[in-house]
């Protein structure tokens, strides 16, 4: 059995215990990155392929004669042509739930940054502005207390639930949006109500046809002008030019994002402009704790071993 891991750089394997992966197949090839034009050759003789973001389309799958298992080193499988894999009876396995507390922790960090503006105050200290202050402190940026504020959660799976628990621990009132499936649950509120009442809205729903650009101009206009938006889910949930306008116009008070629609973003991405007020962007690293990456790798190995056991 031969395996190939196409983009190990996304995992920083040198920090992880890879012994179980090494032993899961007879032979492995590891590549830090794989360009589109390199993929066909690298998977040509593989029985098992691990990919995080490398695309495996219909042509690539059809022309990999030995391929039997595709392991997606992530939750989303949108980079795999699932129909082509099914036609070839190739199993496709992903890993869910590996982020554990890492993503919720990052969401909380973004929330606290928006509320306290600590990152801006710390930057001022480094730039010497505190030393120049005529008083003992600085009060340049508004700070709010989160206790008593309403935290709106859109997407109430494991991650949404963890973020809700952290918000409740801060004394926030939790509002949970009704599911997009149409199923009505008594502990949840209509999205329209959540938008008008929430002081903070945190996105944790998957990107589907129904949620694509969910956060559009109407969504943003329905929010309080004092409200914050946080997205650690998928960049495509947001109409990005609409968010740029909302921040510049004061339609909402701030936003913090860990994901964009294109990653890595081009230098001229609208959200990377220098003049957007109260916007925090982190480079899709809410999931990157060592613990989270180890759980992800272990999940991939478990998928390989389970597949081998079933054969």
TrEMBL record:
Q: Which family does it belong to?
A: Belongs to the D-isomer specific 2-hydroxyacid dehydrogenase family.
Is NAD set as a keyword in this record?
A: yes
D-isomer specific 2-hydroxyacid dehydrogenase NAD-binding domain span = 108-286
Protein name, per record:
D-2-hydroxyacid dehydrogenase
Could you list this entry's UniProt keywords, alphabetically sorted.
NAD, Oxidoreductase
CDD domains from the xrefs?
Answer: 2-Hacid_dh_4 (cd12162)
InterPro entries registered for this protein in UniProt: D-iso_2-hydroxyacid_DH_PdxB (IPR050418), D-isomer_2_OHA_DH_cat_dom (IPR006139), D-isomer_DH_CS (IPR029753), D-isomer_DH_NAD-bd (IPR006140), NAD(P)-bd_dom_sf (IPR036291)
Q: Can you give the residue ranges of the D-isomer specific 2-hydroxyacid dehydrogenase catalytic domain?
A: 18-309
Record carries keyword Protease: no
